[in-house]
Amino acid sequence: MTDQPFTHLDQAGRARMVDVSGKPVTVRTATAEALVRCPPQVVTHLRDQTVPKGDVLAVARIAGIAAAKRTPDLLPLAHVIGVHAVEVELAVVDDGVHISATVRAADRTGVEMEALTCASVAALAVVDMVKGLDKAVEIAVVRLVAKSGGRSGDWRRPEPGHSPDQR
After folding, report:
1. Residues with catalytic annotation?
2. Domain boundaries along the sequence of the chain
3. Which residues neighbour 91 within 8 Å (Cβ) at sequence distance 6 or greater?
4. How far apart are CA 38 and CA 29, in angstroms?
5. pTM
């Protein structure tokens, strides 16, 4: 347990949205990634663009962009911010589909949740598009890769094999 107060609870212990109105507006960026693991025959269909439901990567890209803009509708304590840019990169890899989502805004709070929501929903869209080919598809990872801006500054996930202090 920590001695610091919980930021999202009021004096009576009720959930609240943190007041960020006094914080300066700064440019903020966050990148998240996801991996949808697919059996080899699904990867073949993805590479050959023969998935019966259509263009999997295009649908997932649009789903991710839409999700980033709707994050406060899904996460009750997330702030409504002006999302200024969303980039979703999808790549068919040997074990499935790798998704990278970058969100940018000039606002008073970060865009980490928007990037994570974008990557998550893009991954869900991939699953939805290919589940008819094989029910064994799975979302293997969703994680924040990097963020910049704001009071806490820049952060990047350490590369595997490096100590957490090396960035």
Report:
1. 128
2. 26-149
3. 97, 98
4. 30
5. 0.87
